[in-house]
Write a structure and sequence with these properties.
heterodimer, A: 341 residues, B: 364 residues
């Protein structure tokens, strides 16, 4: 009997897996040969499955970039799909090492929950979609409207703020899943559907008649979406932050995925040479090899590459980059990377 | 004389309005004004739903092709299901390891058929193989070890994951439920109190809360860096939850047993366990088969709740597949397909329960 109990006990103990402790995430990650990246349960263009069941999307590419920087290959990532509510717990408990799940960077999240935001990979903002035949042309005309939205996100809070600030009344109709919200809106259970504009663009393709709906011009919130890491591990945060910055800076200097190897072979520009890992120095500061940024650019791409491949105008998500905040600062956007030197 | 008289009477058929199809219709559908009204409303509702559904699901639907562009706008796009079938059935499980799941399906199917076919020998052996060796073999085959490549549970998904959760929930919750039911009726105060507390706590919270706690709160109580597999947390939650419900079902059966059965068993000198195992439980479980199968069907459908803790069960993976930018906008097809598959499984369980009731309907 005792032996049987011991066997059961040891079986239970073996179910526990000891993984990353907070201190020295990089060492742990290097030791185990992969890291865990928290992603969504499916947001088109951000983190979604492709037809072969592999993860793809602009959020997924941030994970791939971090993997390329550390391991020289973008594939040493384990993706953990998370709901909006469990994402921060998963990060704090060490279940994941990076959270790249269209998460809005806000003061309270950054300051209170013990999270550290490592940058912005997509500048989003909340908008409203209405039926074209409703005649509504501005969000200011939405007084008394019923609004479909997701439960427990900043979207709900922004909506409340917007309506209160403008002295308008509204009736919230909330759901857990984006699919349910879209269907409810499509079935006419609410007058307008609000979420981040990126979400509106992606969800519009699910409507019965996508052309019969318009996205109102107002953007009622700033929603900078970016990767998050645990607070208290600066070295790990640096790696995630600079993996993202390297992609942005590579685009500023015209270094892209397709031409990375040829440009790097011939370049005389010292900034490009640094990104190519030819003028050594900045790898050691991150405890990485000097080719870390070259590995990112040649295997994952620069920011423009990952944007156009996942959410750009030629994808089904179809978010034109020109004129949006996601354009490089050279083209009137707000994307600007500190120099990687 | 008598025969002549009989011959003279012609056997007249009953009036045409009371036999055959017309008679049945008159009796069942048009027997009164209110029934006529209900029938007409029913026919109208069916008329407005069924033809449009059939033309959407079959006549206008697209079956052939491999891309979204080959789908017609009017009908269902079953190409979406067809192209993503591997994901829907197995989740993100590695393609080269699928034979492991398939071979376990095959073993389960063969053993299942063997048990269902009447009058075969060694059914007890096959049954105990299914209940004892099969689960152990499944753990090894599904998750790896003994030379097989490890497949983490985060890659499990689709119908496979639904069957794993439902299977574990169903198979383990029944014995636990029986023990809890016996415990609650026990004369030992501690056993009875603990069983009652356990049952009432688990029955007192919704399953979604249990899963939520397991997923969001439990990791925070653990020492930092120690992770308990999310699937196992969910499995334990589902198992205890359904065990608590089954315990009350079984207790209902125990209470329905006449006192004479207990007394007779005791008079024969049976110990408590033998009395329960040989006399009381076989009879009382038989009485509550419909309720037990009802609980099983409920568990099967409740597995879809694991979506809220980031596991991709059958329904979850269909929603997940629909977020592939190449396949946006096919959630209706996905939900109809999910409903059809769920119905097949639940109906199967329901038929099996009726079959079992008939087979065990002895002594009445």
């Amino acid at each position: 009997m005792i032996i049987r109990k011991l066997t059961i006990l040891s079986a239970i103990v073996s179910l526990f897996t000891v993984s990353a402790a907070t201190a020295g995430t990089l060492d742990t990650v290097k030791g185990q040969g992969f890291f865990n990246c928290g992603v969504s349960q499916g947001v088109p263009g951000f983190s979604n499955p492709d037809s072969d069941g592999n993860w793809s999307g602009i959020d997924v590419d941030v994970c791939r970039a971090v993997s390329a920087a550390i391991f020289g290959t973008p594939d040493n990532v384990k993706y953990v799909p998370l709901t909006a509510k469990e994402r921060f717990t998963a990060l704090q408990s060490g279940e994941i090492d990076v959270l790249s799940r269209n998460t809005t960077w806000t003061l309270s999240r950054d300051a209170q929950i013990g999270l550290e935001f490592a940058g912005v990979n997509f500048y989003d903002g909340q908008g409203f979609m209405v039926r074209s035949d409703s005649g509504i042309t501005s969000a200011m005309e939405l007084d008394g409207a019923s609004v479909c939205t997701n439960l427990g996100t900043t979207t709900e809070l922004n909506m409340a703020d917007f309506f209160r600030a403008n002295g308008m009344s509204y009736e919230p109709v909330v759901f857990e899943k984006a699919d349910e919200v879209v269907n409810a809106y499509d079935e006419g259970r609410c007058d307008t559907y609000t979420t981040d504009k990126s979400g509106l663009a992606a969800q519009r393709t699910k409507l019965a008649d996508p052309d019969a709906h318009v996205v109102l011009p107002e953007t009622i919130s700033k929603e900078p979406l970016g990767p998050v890491v645990r607070e208290g591990d600066g070295d790990w945060a640096d790696i995630v932050r600079w993996s993202l910055n390297a992609m942005i800076e590579a685009e500023e200097f015209g270094l892209d995925k397709g031409s990375a190897s040829s440009t790097c072979a011939t370049t005389g520009n010292p900034v490009v040479a640094r990104l190519c890992g030819k003028e050594g120095g900045n790898g050691a500061a991150l405890n990485l090899g000097d080719s870390w940024s070259y590995d990112i650019i040649s295997q994952v791409g620069n920011y423009g590459d990952i944007y156009e491949a996942n959410v750009g105008a030629n994808t089904p998500v179809g978010l034109a980059r020109a004129g949006s905040p996601n354009a490089s600062y050279k083209n009137g956007g707000v994307l600007y990377a500190p120099p990687a030197r | 004389m008598n025969t002549e008289i009989k011959d003279n009477i012609e056997v007249t058929k009953p009036p045409i309005a009371s036999i055959g199809v017309i008679g049945w219709l008159r009796k069942n559908l048009f027997s009164s004004w209110s029934n006529i009204l209900l029938t007409l409303i029913g026919i109208y509702i069916l008329y407005s739903i069924i033809p449009s559904f059939i033309s959407w699901a079959f006549i206008d639907a697209s079956f052939v092709g491999s891309t979204k562009q080959e789908c017609s706008k009017e009908g269902a796009c079953w190409i979406f299901i067809k192209e993503n079938l591997k994901l829907i059935f197995y989740g993100l499980y590695p393609s080269e390891e699928l034979w492991r799941i398939n071979s376990m399906y095959f073993i389960l199917l063969v053993c299942g058929i063997y048990i269902l076919v009447p009058n075969l020998k060694y059914k007890g052996w096959v049954g105990s193989f299914l209940l004892i060796l099969f689960p152990i073999l499944s753990v090894v085959m599904f998750s790896g070890g003994f030379g097989l490549e490890t497949v983490e549970t985060r890659l499990w998904g689709g119908l496979f994951l639904t069957l794993v959760i439902a299977g574990v929930g169903i198979v383990l919750s029944l014995p636990i439920g029986v023990m809890l039911a016996l415990g609650r009726r026990s004369k030992l105060p501690v056993v009875s109190l603990l069983s009652t507390i356990f049952i009432e706590i688990w029955r007192g919270v919704p399953l979604i809360t249990v899963l939520f706690m397991a997923s969001n709160m439990f990791p925070l109580f653990m020492p930092e860096g120690v992770n308990f597999d999310k699937l196992i947390r969910a499995l334990i939650g589902v198992m205890f939850f359904s065990a608590a419900y089954l315990a009350e079902v079984v207790r209902g059966g125990l209470q329905a047993m006449p006192k004479g059965q207990y007394e007779a068993a005791q008079a024969m000198g049976l110990s408590y366990w033998r009395m329960m195992a040989l006399v009381i439980l076989p009879q009382s479980l038989k009485m509550v088969i419909p309720a037990i199968i009802g609980s099983f069907i409920a568990i099967f459908k409740d597995t879809t709740l694991v979506l809220v803790i980031g596991l991709f069960d059958f329904l979850g993976i269909i929603q997940f597949v629909g977020t592939n930018p190449d396949w946006l906008g096919f959630s209706h097809e996905g939900y109809v397909f999910a409903a059809a598959i769920f119905w097949v499984f639940c109906f199967g369980m329901s038929r099996y329960s009726q079959n079992l009731e008939k087979k065990l309907d002895t002594g009445r």
